[in-house]
Write a structure and sequence with these properties.
Layout: E1 11-15, H1 22-31, E2 39-43, H2 46-58, E3 66-70, H3 71-81, H4 83-86, H5 98-115, H6 119-125, E4 128-131, H7 139-149, E5 154-158, H8 177-180, E6 183-186, H9 191-195, H10 199-213
Length: about 230
């Protein structure tokens, strides 16, 4: 796999199956960041934020290099700072009714970013935007990030085979990403299984994934030796 510097990508997406070094790639890119403004790093859950923060700490990435938030958490901060500009009923910001409040928060944050009213704030606050697990973005979250990409260098990472939030409404279509994030890279080495001493399993899983993506059958009778 050719080394990828996420911060050298102006507007792109990275396809990254589980165990292929996505988190390491984010850490390596942030470790080399020395601009005066941090990189905004967004993901979906508090658990993912905690896991990524731990990995960045292990690799001694300076906390000055990044601002790490959930997508909804960052949207909530924006709306709390600019409630009038966003034209939101501030009762939604208390999130006492999550099923009603979060969709409204996502819509209003989308409109605020896309409107261009906070472009200068974004430029003054961050140098780049990185979004992890992008396959789980709602359409409103996707539109919000596209709005950010009109202002700041932005790269999104994910794997459509790992989407877990489909129950929560329509998600971004990974096949549409080249239209808005044209530069594309793909991680192709199953490091998790190589590092665990099971490279044959890693290769088999990669082949199985390709078959599933292409709509082909996966033959379980061809599992590597030692896998039952």
């Amino acid at each position: 796999m050719t080394a990828i510097d996420l911060l050298a990508i102006r507007r792109g997406h990275v396809s990254a199956p589980a165990g292929y070094g996505k988190t390491q790639l984010i850490a390596d890119s942030l470790a080399g960041h020395d601009a005066s403004r941090p990189v905004l790093v967004l993901t979906h859950t508090n658990g993912a934020v905690a896991a990524l923060r731990k990995r960045l700490s292990v690799h001694a990435v300076s906390s000055d290099a990044f601002t790490l938030r959930t997508l909804d958490g960052w949207a909530l901060r924006l709306l709390s700072a600019y409630p009038s500009r966003a034209e939101i009923d501030i009762r939604h910001l208390d999130v006492t009714r999550p099923r009603q409040d979060y969709p409204e928060i996502q819509r209003r944050a989308r409109d605020l970013v896309v409107s261009g009213h906070i472009n200068e704030v974004l430029r003054a606050s961050y140098s780049h935007v990185i979004v992890d697990e992008y396959q789980d973005c709602s359409l409103d979250q996707h539109a919000m990030i596209v709005g950010c990409a009109d202002v700041l260098p932005t790269v999104v990472l994910g794997d459509p085979m790992q989407s877990v939030f489909g129950f929560a409404g329509r998600r971004v279509d990974w096949n549409d990403l080249p239209d808005v994030f044209p530069e594309h890279h793909e991680l192709d080495t199953p490091w998790r299984w190589i590092n665990a001493g099971a490279p044959d399993l890693g290769r088999w899983l990669a082949e199985a994934r390709r078959a599933l993506v292409n709509g082909d059958a996966v033959h379980l009778n061809e599992l590597p030796e030692g896998v039952v």
